[in-house]
Protein backbone atom coordinates (compact mmCIF):
# COMPACT_ATOMS: atom_id res chain seq x y z
CA UNK A 1 0.00 0.00 0.00
CA UNK A 2 1.17 3.51 -0.83
CA UNK A 3 -0.82 4.97 2.05
CA UNK A 4 -1.52 4.00 5.61
CA UNK A 5 -4.32 4.93 7.93
CA UNK A 6 -2.58 5.20 11.29
CA UNK A 7 -3.76 8.06 13.48
CA UNK A 8 -0.55 10.05 13.85
CA UNK A 9 -2.08 13.07 15.60
CA UNK A 10 -0.27 13.84 18.86
CA UNK A 11 -2.34 16.76 20.06
CA UNK A 12 -2.07 15.46 23.62
CA UNK A 13 1.66 16.22 23.49
CA UNK A 14 1.20 19.77 22.24
CA UNK A 15 1.18 21.48 25.68
CA UNK A 16 4.51 19.94 26.68
CA UNK A 17 6.11 20.62 23.31
CA UNK A 18 5.04 24.26 23.18
CA UNK A 19 6.17 24.69 26.78
CA UNK A 20 9.60 23.25 25.89
CA UNK A 21 9.81 25.56 22.90
CA UNK A 22 8.93 28.64 24.93
CA UNK A 23 11.45 27.64 27.59
CA UNK A 24 14.18 28.04 24.96
CA UNK A 25 13.12 31.51 23.83
CA UNK A 26 15.23 33.42 26.36
CA UNK A 27 18.37 31.43 25.59
CA UNK A 28 17.92 32.05 21.88
CA UNK A 29 17.12 35.72 22.48
CA UNK A 30 13.60 35.79 21.04
CA UNK A 31 10.08 36.38 22.29
CA UNK A 32 8.33 34.31 19.65
CA UNK A 33 8.85 31.99 16.71
CA UNK A 34 7.31 31.66 13.25
CA UNK A 35 6.56 28.00 12.46
CA UNK A 36 5.62 27.55 8.81
CA UNK A 37 4.75 24.23 7.23
CA UNK A 38 7.79 24.24 4.99
CA UNK A 39 11.18 22.78 4.31
CA UNK A 40 14.15 24.46 2.66
CA UNK A 41 12.67 23.77 -0.79
CA UNK A 42 9.29 25.39 0.01
CA UNK A 43 7.30 22.51 -1.48
CA UNK A 44 3.75 21.47 -0.65
CA UNK A 45 4.71 17.92 0.27
CA UNK A 46 7.42 17.46 2.88
CA UNK A 47 9.66 14.64 4.06
CA UNK A 48 8.82 13.48 7.57
CA UNK A 49 11.89 15.22 8.99
CA UNK A 50 10.48 18.61 7.94
CA UNK A 51 6.97 18.27 9.41
CA UNK A 52 7.71 20.66 12.26
CA UNK A 53 4.27 22.31 12.28
CA UNK A 54 2.54 18.93 12.51
CA UNK A 55 4.89 17.74 15.24
CA UNK A 56 4.43 20.88 17.32
CA UNK A 57 0.69 21.53 16.90
CA UNK A 58 -0.94 18.34 15.59
CA UNK A 59 -2.19 20.00 12.39
CA UNK A 60 -1.46 17.77 9.39
CA UNK A 61 -2.81 19.84 6.47
CA UNK A 62 -0.69 20.59 3.43
CA UNK A 63 -0.60 24.36 4.03
CA UNK A 64 -0.47 26.47 7.16
CA UNK A 65 1.73 28.37 9.59
CA UNK A 66 1.79 29.20 13.27
CA UNK A 67 3.21 32.02 15.33
CA UNK A 68 4.13 31.05 18.89
CA UNK A 69 4.63 33.94 21.35
CA UNK A 70 5.40 33.65 25.04
CA UNK A 71 1.81 34.12 26.15
CA UNK A 72 -0.30 33.42 23.08
CA UNK A 73 -0.27 31.54 19.78
CA UNK A 74 -2.22 31.33 16.54
CA UNK A 75 -2.31 28.97 13.59
CA UNK A 76 -3.32 30.13 10.10
CA UNK A 77 -4.96 27.88 7.49
CA UNK A 78 -6.95 28.39 4.30
CA UNK A 79 -10.57 27.48 3.62
CA UNK A 80 -9.77 23.82 2.92
CA UNK A 81 -8.74 23.24 6.51
CA UNK A 82 -11.03 25.34 8.72
CA UNK A 83 -12.84 22.25 10.01
CA UNK A 84 -9.82 19.98 10.13
CA UNK A 85 -7.61 22.34 12.11
CA UNK A 86 -10.14 22.64 14.93
CA UNK A 87 -10.23 18.85 15.25
CA UNK A 88 -6.45 18.46 15.34
CA UNK A 89 -5.06 21.22 17.54
CA UNK A 90 -5.38 22.10 21.22
CA UNK A 91 -7.83 24.99 21.13
CA UNK A 92 -6.88 26.03 24.65
CA UNK A 93 -3.34 26.77 23.46
CA UNK A 94 -3.79 28.07 19.94
CA UNK A 95 -6.33 30.16 18.06
CA UNK A 96 -7.16 28.88 14.54
CA UNK A 97 -7.59 31.65 11.97
CA UNK A 98 -8.47 31.52 8.27
CA UNK A 99 -6.45 33.26 5.58
CA UNK A 100 -6.81 35.54 3.75
CA UNK A 101 -9.44 36.98 6.09
CA UNK A 102 -6.94 36.81 8.96
CA UNK A 103 -3.35 37.41 7.88
CA UNK A 104 -0.46 36.14 10.03
CA UNK A 105 1.34 39.40 9.29
CA UNK A 106 -1.56 41.48 10.60
CA UNK A 107 -1.78 39.21 13.65
CA UNK A 108 1.92 39.75 14.34
CA UNK A 109 1.45 43.53 14.15
CA UNK A 110 -1.49 43.34 16.55
CA UNK A 111 0.07 40.91 19.06
CA UNK A 112 3.84 41.47 19.16
CA UNK A 113 4.86 43.60 22.16
CA UNK A 114 6.93 46.69 21.42
CA UNK A 115 10.62 45.90 21.60
CA UNK A 116 10.05 42.15 21.28
CA UNK A 117 11.99 39.89 18.90
CA UNK A 118 10.28 37.42 16.56
CA UNK A 119 12.54 34.59 15.44
CA UNK A 120 12.47 32.67 12.21
CA UNK A 121 14.44 29.97 10.42
CA UNK A 122 15.71 31.59 7.19
CA UNK A 123 15.59 28.22 5.42
CA UNK A 124 11.85 27.91 6.08
CA UNK A 125 10.59 31.33 4.96
CA UNK A 126 10.80 32.67 1.42
CA UNK A 127 12.34 36.03 0.63
CA UNK A 128 8.85 37.40 0.06
CA UNK A 129 7.57 36.00 3.38
CA UNK A 130 10.43 37.61 5.28
CA UNK A 131 9.68 40.99 3.74
CA UNK A 132 6.04 40.75 4.85
CA UNK A 133 6.93 39.68 8.40
CA UNK A 134 9.61 42.37 8.65
CA UNK A 135 7.06 45.07 7.80
CA UNK A 136 4.62 43.57 10.32
CA UNK A 137 7.21 43.56 13.09
CA UNK A 138 8.34 47.12 12.42
CA UNK A 139 4.74 48.30 12.57
CA UNK A 140 4.51 46.75 16.05
CA UNK A 141 7.81 48.28 17.12
CA UNK A 142 9.28 44.77 17.20
CA UNK A 143 12.21 43.12 15.42
CA UNK A 144 12.36 40.13 13.06
CA UNK A 145 15.41 37.97 13.86
CA UNK A 146 16.97 35.28 11.66
CA UNK A 147 18.15 32.26 13.67
CA UNK A 148 21.20 30.13 13.00
CA UNK A 149 19.46 27.01 14.31
CA UNK A 150 15.81 26.05 14.54
CA UNK A 151 14.83 25.64 18.22
CA UNK A 152 12.20 23.04 17.32
CA UNK A 153 14.95 20.73 16.10
CA UNK A 154 16.58 20.99 19.54
CA UNK A 155 13.52 19.54 21.28
CA UNK A 156 12.43 17.07 18.56
CA UNK A 157 14.39 14.14 19.97
CA UNK A 158 13.01 11.45 17.63
CA UNK A 159 13.10 13.50 14.45
CA UNK A 160 13.26 11.25 11.36
CA UNK A 161 16.32 11.20 9.15
CA UNK A 162 16.40 13.07 5.85
CA UNK A 163 15.47 10.89 2.84
CA UNK A 164 18.28 9.45 0.76
CA UNK A 165 16.52 7.38 -1.90
CA UNK A 166 17.62 6.53 -5.45
CA UNK A 167 17.28 9.02 -8.30
CA UNK A 168 16.44 7.76 -11.79
CA UNK A 169 16.19 9.18 -15.29
CA UNK A 170 12.80 10.16 -16.74
CA UNK A 171 12.93 8.56 -20.23
CA UNK A 172 13.00 11.00 -23.13
CA UNK A 173 9.93 9.32 -24.64
CA UNK A 174 7.93 10.71 -21.71
CA UNK A 175 9.92 13.89 -21.01
CA UNK A 176 9.75 14.97 -24.64
CA UNK A 177 12.73 17.36 -24.44
CA UNK A 178 16.29 16.54 -23.34
CA UNK A 179 17.86 18.07 -20.26
CA UNK A 180 20.52 19.68 -22.44
CA UNK A 181 17.89 21.44 -24.55
CA UNK A 182 16.02 22.62 -21.46
CA UNK A 183 19.22 24.00 -19.93
CA UNK A 184 20.09 25.80 -23.18
CA UNK A 185 16.68 27.47 -23.13
CA UNK A 186 17.21 28.57 -19.52
CA UNK A 187 20.69 29.87 -20.34
CA UNK A 188 19.53 31.77 -23.41
CA UNK A 189 16.90 33.54 -21.35
CA UNK A 190 19.48 34.55 -18.75
CA UNK A 191 21.82 35.90 -21.42
CA UNK A 192 19.06 38.09 -22.81
CA UNK A 193 18.53 39.53 -19.34
CA UNK A 194 22.25 39.91 -18.58
CA UNK A 195 22.30 37.36 -15.76
CA UNK A 196 25.19 34.95 -15.22
CA UNK A 197 23.34 32.27 -13.23
CA UNK A 198 20.05 31.30 -11.66
CA UNK A 199 19.39 29.18 -8.59
CA UNK A 200 16.65 26.56 -8.90
CA UNK A 201 14.99 25.81 -5.58
CA UNK A 202 11.71 24.02 -6.29
CA UNK A 203 12.00 20.24 -6.22
CA UNK A 204 9.67 19.66 -9.16
CA UNK A 205 11.50 22.30 -11.22
CA UNK A 206 14.79 20.50 -10.59
CA UNK A 207 13.24 17.15 -11.50
CA UNK A 208 11.70 18.60 -14.65
CA UNK A 209 14.70 20.47 -16.06
CA UNK A 210 17.16 17.61 -15.46
CA UNK A 211 14.71 14.85 -16.47
CA UNK A 212 15.16 12.97 -13.21
CA UNK A 213 12.69 11.53 -10.74
CA UNK A 214 12.99 10.40 -7.14
CA UNK A 215 11.05 9.24 -4.12
CA UNK A 216 12.08 11.73 -1.45
CA UNK A 217 8.62 13.03 -0.58
CA UNK A 218 5.26 11.26 -0.32
CA UNK A 219 3.40 10.70 -3.61
CA UNK A 220 5.49 13.19 -5.61
CA UNK A 221 8.43 11.79 -7.63
CA UNK A 222 10.51 14.94 -7.22
CA UNK A 223 14.06 15.20 -5.90
CA UNK A 224 15.20 17.16 -2.85
CA UNK A 225 18.03 19.09 -4.45
CA UNK A 226 19.12 22.61 -5.33
CA UNK A 227 20.74 23.53 -8.64
CA UNK A 228 22.67 26.41 -10.15
CA UNK A 229 22.30 26.92 -13.90
CA UNK A 230 24.99 29.02 -15.59
CA UNK A 231 24.73 31.16 -18.70
CA UNK A 232 26.87 28.66 -20.66
CA UNK A 233 24.08 26.05 -20.17
CA UNK A 234 26.13 24.03 -17.71
CA UNK A 235 24.72 23.34 -14.25
CA UNK A 236 25.68 22.27 -10.75
CA UNK A 237 23.25 19.84 -9.14
CA UNK A 238 23.63 19.55 -5.36
CA UNK A 239 22.64 15.99 -4.56
CA UNK A 240 24.61 13.01 -3.26
CA UNK A 241 26.05 11.43 -6.45
CA UNK A 242 25.71 8.00 -4.84
CA UNK A 243 21.94 8.35 -5.08
CA UNK A 244 21.95 8.69 -8.87
CA UNK A 245 21.67 5.51 -10.94
CA UNK A 246 24.03 4.90 -13.86
CA UNK A 247 21.59 5.86 -16.65
CA UNK A 248 20.68 9.14 -14.98
CA UNK A 249 24.32 9.93 -14.18
CA UNK A 250 25.36 9.36 -17.79
CA UNK A 251 22.50 11.51 -19.11
CA UNK A 252 23.38 14.32 -16.70
CA UNK A 253 27.04 14.21 -17.72
CA UNK A 254 26.05 14.45 -21.38
CA UNK A 255 24.04 17.58 -20.52
CA UNK A 256 27.11 19.15 -18.84
CA UNK A 257 25.69 18.79 -15.36
CA UNK A 258 28.13 18.50 -12.46
CA UNK A 259 27.02 16.57 -9.38
CA UNK A 260 28.03 17.90 -5.97
CA UNK A 261 27.22 17.04 -2.38
CA UNK A 262 24.39 19.05 -0.77
CA UNK A 263 26.76 20.59 1.77
CA UNK A 264 28.74 22.15 -1.11
CA UNK A 265 25.83 24.47 -1.97
CA UNK A 266 27.11 27.33 0.19
CA UNK A 267 30.48 27.19 -1.56
CA UNK A 268 28.73 27.20 -4.94
CA UNK A 269 26.74 30.29 -4.00
CA UNK A 270 29.82 32.02 -2.57
CA UNK A 271 31.69 31.35 -5.81
CA UNK A 272 29.02 33.29 -7.67
CA UNK A 273 29.44 36.13 -5.19
CA UNK A 274 33.19 36.15 -5.58
CA UNK A 275 32.71 36.62 -9.31
CA UNK A 276 30.26 39.48 -8.60
CA UNK A 277 27.78 37.59 -10.74
CA UNK A 278 24.24 38.68 -11.44
CA UNK A 279 22.08 35.86 -10.06
CA UNK A 280 18.37 35.29 -10.58
CA UNK A 281 16.30 33.97 -7.70
CA UNK A 282 12.54 33.48 -7.45
CA UNK A 283 11.68 35.41 -4.26
CA UNK A 284 8.23 33.82 -4.13
CA UNK A 285 9.69 30.34 -3.67
CA UNK A 286 13.34 30.69 -2.64
CA UNK A 287 14.38 30.46 0.99
CA UNK A 288 15.68 33.68 2.54
CA UNK A 289 18.87 31.81 3.52
CA UNK A 290 19.84 31.52 -0.15
CA UNK A 291 19.46 35.26 -0.77
CA UNK A 292 21.46 36.09 2.35
CA UNK A 293 24.33 33.82 1.37
CA UNK A 294 24.49 35.29 -2.14
CA UNK A 295 24.33 38.91 -1.00
CA UNK A 296 26.91 38.35 1.74
CA UNK A 297 29.24 36.85 -0.87
CA UNK A 298 28.96 39.84 -3.19
CA UNK A 299 26.48 38.61 -5.79
CA UNK A 300 23.85 40.89 -7.28
CA UNK A 301 20.55 39.10 -6.67
CA UNK A 302 17.53 39.83 -8.84
CA UNK A 303 14.01 38.52 -8.36
CA UNK A 304 12.91 36.57 -11.42
CA UNK A 305 10.22 33.93 -11.71
CA UNK A 306 11.85 30.52 -12.06
CA UNK A 307 12.71 29.94 -15.73
CA UNK A 308 11.25 26.44 -15.38
CA UNK A 309 7.79 27.52 -14.27
CA UNK A 310 6.02 28.25 -17.56
CA UNK A 311 7.87 25.67 -19.70
CA UNK A 312 7.05 22.99 -17.12
CA UNK A 313 3.40 24.08 -17.01
CA UNK A 314 2.92 24.17 -20.79
CA UNK A 315 3.27 20.48 -21.57
CA UNK A 316 4.97 19.38 -24.77
CA UNK A 317 3.55 16.79 -27.20
CA UNK A 318 5.08 13.80 -25.42
CA UNK A 319 3.85 14.96 -22.01
CA UNK A 320 0.32 15.54 -23.32
CA UNK A 321 0.21 12.15 -25.01
CA UNK A 322 1.43 10.62 -21.77
CA UNK A 323 -1.31 12.41 -19.82
CA UNK A 324 -3.97 11.13 -22.20
CA UNK A 325 -2.68 7.57 -21.94
CA UNK A 326 -2.44 7.74 -18.15
CA UNK A 327 -6.02 8.97 -17.81
CA UNK A 328 -7.42 6.24 -20.05
CA UNK A 329 -5.48 3.70 -18.01
CA UNK A 330 -6.77 5.24 -14.78
CA UNK A 331 -10.37 5.17 -16.03
CA UNK A 332 -10.39 1.37 -15.80
CA UNK A 333 -9.82 1.01 -12.03
CA UNK A 334 -12.13 3.98 -11.41
CA UNK A 335 -14.97 2.28 -13.30
CA UNK A 336 -14.32 -1.02 -11.56
CA UNK A 337 -14.24 0.73 -8.19
CA UNK A 338 -17.54 2.56 -8.69
CA UNK A 339 -19.14 -0.72 -9.81
CA UNK A 340 -17.73 -2.48 -6.74
CA UNK A 341 -18.97 0.36 -4.52
CA UNK A 342 -22.49 0.19 -5.95
CA UNK A 343 -22.65 -3.57 -5.33
CA UNK A 344 -21.12 -3.66 -1.87
CA UNK A 345 -21.94 -0.35 -0.17
CA UNK A 346 -25.68 -1.04 0.38
CA UNK A 347 -24.93 -4.06 2.55
CA UNK A 348 -23.59 -1.75 5.25
CA UNK A 349 -20.23 -3.53 5.62
CA UNK A 350 -17.96 -0.97 3.95
CA UNK A 351 -16.13 1.89 5.59
CA UNK A 352 -13.87 4.70 4.41
CA UNK A 353 -10.64 2.71 4.79
CA UNK A 354 -12.00 -0.36 3.02
CA UNK A 355 -13.03 1.79 0.06
CA UNK A 356 -9.64 3.55 -0.15
CA UNK A 357 -7.83 0.22 0.02
CA UNK A 358 -9.99 -1.27 -2.71
CA UNK A 359 -9.38 1.64 -5.06
CA UNK A 360 -5.62 1.48 -4.56
CA UNK A 361 -5.68 -2.29 -5.07
CA UNK A 362 -7.56 -1.93 -8.36
CA UNK A 363 -5.10 0.71 -9.57
CA UNK A 364 -2.17 -1.54 -8.68
CA UNK A 365 -3.56 -4.50 -10.62
CA UNK A 366 -2.58 -2.90 -13.92
CA UNK A 367 1.09 -3.23 -12.94
CA UNK A 368 1.97 0.32 -14.03
CA UNK A 369 1.11 2.22 -10.84
CA UNK A 370 4.19 3.99 -9.47
CA UNK A 371 2.45 5.64 -6.51
CA UNK A 372 -0.67 7.51 -5.55
CA UNK A 373 -0.55 11.20 -6.38
CA UNK A 374 -1.83 12.00 -2.85
CA UNK A 375 -3.46 10.21 0.07
CA UNK A 376 -6.95 9.21 -1.05
CA UNK A 377 -9.70 11.42 0.39
CA UNK A 378 -12.33 8.84 1.27
CA UNK A 379 -15.15 10.66 3.04
CA UNK A 380 -18.50 9.28 4.13
CA UNK A 381 -21.37 11.47 5.32
CA UNK A 382 -20.03 14.41 7.37
CA UNK A 383 -16.44 13.66 6.42
CA UNK A 384 -17.25 14.44 2.81
CA UNK A 385 -17.74 18.04 3.99
CA UNK A 386 -14.02 18.30 4.90
CA UNK A 387 -12.33 19.14 1.58
CA UNK A 388 -8.93 17.65 2.47
CA UNK A 389 -10.08 14.96 4.89
CA UNK A 390 -7.61 12.16 5.64
CA UNK A 391 -9.18 8.99 6.97
CA UNK A 392 -7.42 7.28 9.87
CA UNK A 393 -8.13 4.24 12.00
CA UNK A 394 -9.56 6.62 14.59
CA UNK A 395 -11.76 8.71 12.28
CA UNK A 396 -12.91 5.85 10.01
CA UNK A 397 -16.68 5.98 9.39
CA UNK A 398 -18.97 3.36 7.85
CA UNK A 399 -20.45 4.07 4.42
CA UNK A 400 -24.14 4.16 5.26
CA UNK A 401 -27.34 3.99 3.25
CA UNK A 402 -28.92 7.28 2.19
CA UNK A 403 -25.64 9.10 2.78
CA UNK A 404 -23.21 10.70 0.37
CA UNK A 405 -19.75 9.23 -0.15
CA UNK A 406 -16.96 11.32 -1.73
CA UNK A 407 -13.70 9.92 -3.08
CA UNK A 408 -10.90 12.21 -4.31
CA UNK A 409 -7.92 10.23 -5.52
CA UNK A 410 -5.12 10.10 -8.06
CA UNK A 411 -2.27 8.03 -9.38
CA UNK A 412 1.31 8.48 -10.51
CA UNK A 413 2.24 6.69 -13.72
CA UNK A 414 5.56 7.14 -15.51
CA UNK A 415 3.74 8.95 -18.31
CA UNK A 416 1.31 11.08 -16.33
CA UNK A 417 -0.32 12.18 -13.08
CA UNK A 418 -4.07 11.80 -12.45
CA UNK A 419 -6.49 13.45 -10.03
CA UNK A 420 -10.23 12.76 -9.96
CA UNK A 421 -13.13 13.28 -7.57
CA UNK A 422 -16.48 11.55 -7.68
CA UNK A 423 -19.40 11.95 -5.30
CA UNK A 424 -22.01 9.18 -5.11
CA UNK A 425 -25.16 8.48 -3.15
CA UNK A 426 -25.57 5.17 -1.39
CA UNK A 427 -29.33 4.66 -1.30
CA UNK A 428 -31.74 7.52 -1.91
CA UNK A 429 -30.67 11.19 -1.97
CA UNK A 430 -32.66 14.02 -0.47
CA UNK A 431 -34.00 16.75 -2.73
CA UNK A 432 -31.44 19.13 -1.24
CA UNK A 433 -28.58 16.75 -2.08
CA UNK A 434 -29.74 16.53 -5.68
CA UNK A 435 -30.10 20.30 -5.92
CA UNK A 436 -26.60 20.94 -4.56
CA UNK A 437 -25.03 18.18 -6.63
CA UNK A 438 -26.63 19.45 -9.83
CA UNK A 439 -25.48 23.01 -9.16
CA UNK A 440 -21.92 21.77 -8.68
CA UNK A 441 -22.26 19.68 -11.84
CA UNK A 442 -23.53 22.67 -13.83
CA UNK A 443 -20.45 24.62 -12.78
CA UNK A 444 -18.12 21.79 -13.75
CA UNK A 445 -19.83 21.36 -17.12
CA UNK A 446 -19.88 25.05 -18.00
CA UNK A 447 -16.23 25.51 -17.15
CA UNK A 448 -15.41 22.43 -19.26
CA UNK A 449 -17.36 23.96 -22.16
CA UNK A 450 -15.77 27.39 -21.92
CA UNK A 451 -14.36 28.96 -25.07
CA UNK A 452 -12.23 31.98 -24.27
CA UNK A 453 -9.85 34.45 -25.91
CA UNK A 454 -6.09 34.11 -25.68
CA UNK A 455 -4.88 36.12 -22.69
CA UNK A 456 -7.64 34.89 -20.38
CA UNK A 457 -6.63 34.01 -16.81
CA UNK A 458 -7.92 31.36 -14.44
CA UNK A 459 -9.38 34.16 -12.34
CA UNK A 460 -11.50 35.31 -15.27
CA UNK A 461 -13.02 31.84 -15.67
CA UNK A 462 -13.44 30.88 -12.01
CA UNK A 463 -16.91 32.49 -11.66
CA UNK A 464 -18.28 30.17 -14.36
CA UNK A 465 -17.91 27.23 -11.98
CA UNK A 466 -19.63 29.09 -9.14
CA UNK A 467 -22.52 30.80 -10.93
CA UNK A 468 -25.15 28.10 -10.33
CA UNK A 469 -24.22 27.98 -6.64
CA UNK A 470 -24.25 31.76 -6.35
CA UNK A 471 -27.79 31.81 -7.75
CA UNK A 472 -28.84 29.84 -4.66
CA UNK A 473 -26.76 31.89 -2.20
CA UNK A 474 -24.06 29.21 -1.98
CA UNK A 475 -20.31 28.99 -2.61
CA UNK A 476 -17.19 27.00 -1.68
CA UNK A 477 -14.05 28.17 0.08
CA UNK A 478 -11.31 26.68 -2.08
CA UNK A 479 -10.03 27.30 -5.58
CA UNK A 480 -11.90 25.73 -8.46
CA UNK A 481 -8.79 24.09 -9.86
CA UNK A 482 -5.02 23.73 -9.82
CA UNK A 483 -2.31 22.85 -12.30
CA UNK A 484 -1.13 19.24 -12.57
CA UNK A 485 2.35 17.99 -13.43
CA UNK A 486 3.67 15.32 -15.79
CA UNK A 487 4.62 12.47 -13.47
CA UNK A 488 5.36 15.18 -10.93
CA UNK A 489 3.37 17.21 -8.43
CA UNK A 490 -0.40 16.83 -8.51
CA UNK A 491 -0.55 20.49 -7.46
CA UNK A 492 1.59 22.44 -9.92
CA UNK A 493 1.65 26.14 -10.59
CA UNK A 494 1.39 28.74 -11.75
CA UNK A 495 -1.94 28.13 -13.48
CA UNK A 496 -5.13 27.63 -11.49
CA UNK A 497 -8.79 28.52 -11.35
CA UNK A 498 -9.36 30.80 -8.37
CA UNK A 499 -10.88 34.16 -7.62
CA UNK A 500 -7.49 35.86 -7.30
CA UNK A 501 -5.54 34.12 -10.08
CA UNK A 502 -3.80 36.28 -12.69
CA UNK A 503 -1.89 33.65 -14.67
CA UNK A 504 -2.67 33.63 -18.39
CA UNK A 505 -3.87 30.20 -19.53
CA UNK A 506 -1.70 28.85 -22.32
CA UNK A 507 -2.06 25.83 -24.62
CA UNK A 508 -0.60 22.71 -23.05
CA UNK A 509 -1.46 23.62 -19.48
CA UNK A 510 -3.30 20.95 -17.48
CA UNK A 511 -5.74 22.03 -14.76
CA UNK A 512 -8.26 20.40 -12.49
CA UNK A 513 -11.89 21.50 -12.65
CA UNK A 514 -13.40 20.75 -9.23
CA UNK A 515 -16.18 22.96 -7.88
CA UNK A 516 -17.83 21.78 -4.68
CA UNK A 517 -20.39 22.34 -1.98
CA UNK A 518 -19.96 21.48 1.71
CA UNK A 519 -22.59 21.31 4.43
CA UNK A 520 -20.60 21.02 7.64
CA UNK A 521 -21.50 17.99 9.73
CA UNK A 522 -23.73 16.47 7.06
CA UNK A 523 -22.28 15.97 3.58
CA UNK A 524 -20.00 17.36 0.90
CA UNK A 525 -20.01 17.32 -2.89
CA UNK A 526 -17.15 17.73 -5.35
CA UNK A 527 -16.87 16.67 -8.99
CA UNK A 528 -13.44 16.82 -10.59
CA UNK A 529 -12.08 16.25 -14.07
CA UNK A 530 -8.73 17.32 -15.50
CA UNK A 531 -8.57 19.59 -18.55
CA UNK A 532 -5.97 20.57 -21.16
CA UNK A 533 -5.89 24.12 -22.53
CA UNK A 534 -6.04 23.87 -26.34
CA UNK A 535 -5.97 26.32 -29.24
CA UNK A 536 -9.43 26.53 -30.82
CA UNK A 537 -10.17 26.35 -34.51
CA UNK A 538 -11.06 29.77 -35.91
CA UNK A 539 -14.73 30.66 -36.13
CA UNK A 540 -15.92 32.20 -39.38
CA UNK A 541 -16.18 35.90 -38.75
CA UNK A 542 -14.23 35.63 -35.49
CA UNK A 543 -11.70 38.35 -34.75
CA UNK A 544 -9.56 36.92 -31.97
CA UNK A 545 -7.62 33.70 -31.35
CA UNK A 546 -9.57 31.49 -28.96
CA UNK A 547 -8.85 28.60 -26.63
CA UNK A 548 -10.93 25.70 -25.32
CA UNK A 549 -10.56 22.79 -22.90
CA UNK A 550 -10.00 19.15 -23.80
CA UNK A 551 -11.28 16.80 -21.07
CA UNK A 552 -8.75 14.20 -19.88
CA UNK A 553 -10.83 12.33 -17.30
CA UNK A 554 -13.34 9.67 -18.30
CA UNK A 555 -15.32 8.25 -15.38
CA UNK A 556 -19.11 8.14 -14.83
CA UNK A 557 -20.84 10.90 -12.87
CA UNK A 558 -23.54 9.62 -10.52
CA UNK A 559 -26.83 9.95 -12.42
CA UNK A 560 -28.80 9.30 -9.21
CA UNK A 561 -27.78 12.70 -7.87
CA UNK A 562 -28.66 14.66 -11.01
CA UNK A 563 -31.83 16.77 -11.11
CA UNK A 564 -32.47 17.20 -14.87
CA UNK A 565 -35.02 19.98 -14.28
CA UNK A 566 -32.19 22.25 -13.08
CA UNK A 567 -30.08 21.70 -16.19
CA UNK A 568 -30.27 23.47 -19.53
CA UNK A 569 -30.53 21.48 -22.73
CA UNK A 570 -26.90 22.34 -23.51
CA UNK A 571 -25.72 21.10 -20.11
CA UNK A 572 -27.70 17.88 -20.38
CA UNK A 573 -26.40 17.28 -23.90
CA UNK A 574 -22.84 17.75 -22.64
CA UNK A 575 -23.37 15.24 -19.83
CA UNK A 576 -24.90 12.64 -22.12
CA UNK A 577 -22.14 13.11 -24.68
CA UNK A 578 -19.52 12.86 -21.95
CA UNK A 579 -20.98 9.59 -20.73
CA UNK A 580 -21.05 8.25 -24.30
CA UNK A 581 -17.33 9.08 -24.55
CA UNK A 582 -16.68 7.28 -21.25
CA UNK A 583 -18.27 4.11 -22.63
CA UNK A 584 -16.45 4.42 -25.94
CA UNK A 585 -13.02 4.92 -24.33
CA UNK A 586 -13.22 2.77 -21.20
CA UNK A 587 -15.55 -0.15 -21.98
CA UNK A 588 -13.14 -1.85 -24.44
CA UNK A 589 -10.49 -1.82 -21.70
CA UNK A 590 -12.67 -3.63 -19.16
CA UNK A 591 -12.17 -7.39 -19.02
CA UNK A 592 -15.37 -8.26 -17.14
CA UNK A 593 -18.80 -8.41 -18.77
CA UNK A 594 -20.27 -7.35 -15.43
CA UNK A 595 -18.10 -4.23 -15.37
CA UNK A 596 -19.00 -3.37 -18.97
CA UNK A 597 -22.71 -3.85 -18.30
CA UNK A 598 -22.49 -1.67 -15.23
CA UNK A 599 -20.65 1.03 -17.19
CA UNK A 600 -23.33 1.01 -19.90
CA UNK A 601 -26.03 1.51 -17.27
CA UNK A 602 -24.07 4.15 -15.34
CA UNK A 603 -23.59 6.13 -18.56
CA UNK A 604 -27.09 5.76 -20.00
CA UNK A 605 -28.56 9.00 -21.38
CA UNK A 606 -30.55 11.14 -18.97
CA UNK A 607 -33.90 12.41 -20.24
CA UNK A 608 -36.14 15.01 -18.69
- Derived from helix and strand composition plus strand pairing, the structural class reads alpha+beta
Cα shape: globular
Strand content: 15-25%
CATH architecture of the largest domain: Alpha-Beta Complex
Write out the CATH superfamily name of the largest domain.
Answer: Creatinase/methionine aminopeptidase superfamily
Q: How helical, in percent, are the residues? A: 25-40%
CATH structural class of the largest domain: Alpha Beta
Domain count: the total is 3
Average pLDDT for all residues: 96
Q: What summary fits the major beta sheet?
A: 6 strands, mixed
Provide the CATH topology of the largest domain: Creatine Amidinohydrolase
**Order of strands across the biggest sheet?**
4-3-2-1-5-6
Beginning-to-end CA distance, first to last residue: 43 Å
Radius of gyration: 25 Å
Number of helices: 20
Number of strands: 28
How would you summarize the topology of this molecule?
Blueprint: H1 14-23, H2 25-28, E1 32-36, H3 52-57, E2 65-69, E3 73-77, H4 82-88, E4 95-98, H5 104-111, E5 117-120, H6 127-139, E6 143-146, H7 151-155, E7 168-169, H8 172-175, H9 179-193, E8 197-200, H10 203-210, E9 212-213, E10 226-230, E11 235-238, H11 246-254, E12 257-260, H12 265-274, E13 278-281, H13 288-297, E14 300-303, H14 309-313, H15 317-344, H16 352-364, E15 371-372, E16 377-380, E17 403-409, E18 411-413, E19 416-417, E20 420-426, H17 431-448, E21 451-453, H18 458-470, E22 481-483, E23 492-497, E24 510-513, E25 516-519, E26 523-526, E27 529-535, E28 546-551, H19 569-586, H20 593-602
Parallel strand pairs: 1-5, 3-4, 5-6, 8-13, 11-12, 13-14
Antiparallel strand pairs: 1-2, 2-3, 7-9, 8-10, 10-11, 15-18, 16-17, 17-20, 18-19, 21-28, 22-23, 24-27, 25-26, 27-28
Helix pairs in contact: 5-6, 12-13, 15-16, 17-18
Amino acid sequence: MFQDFADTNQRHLTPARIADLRARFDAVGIDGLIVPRADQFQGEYLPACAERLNWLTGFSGSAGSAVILKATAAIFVDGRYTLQVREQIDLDLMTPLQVPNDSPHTWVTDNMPEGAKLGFDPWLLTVRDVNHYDVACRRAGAELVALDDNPIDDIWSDRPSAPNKPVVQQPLQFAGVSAADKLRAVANGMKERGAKACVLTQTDAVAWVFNIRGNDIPHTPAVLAFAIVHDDASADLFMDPARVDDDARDALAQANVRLAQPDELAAGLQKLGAAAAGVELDFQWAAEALRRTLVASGATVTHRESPCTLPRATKNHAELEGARAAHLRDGVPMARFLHWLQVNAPNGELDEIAAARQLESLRAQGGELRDLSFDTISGAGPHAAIPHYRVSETSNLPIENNRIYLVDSGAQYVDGTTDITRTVIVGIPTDEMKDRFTRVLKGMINLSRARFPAGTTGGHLDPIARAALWEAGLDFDHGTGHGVGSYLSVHEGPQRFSKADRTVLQPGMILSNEPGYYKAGEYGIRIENLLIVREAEPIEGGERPMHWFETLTFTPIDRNLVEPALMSDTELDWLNDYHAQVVKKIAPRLESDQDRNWLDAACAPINR
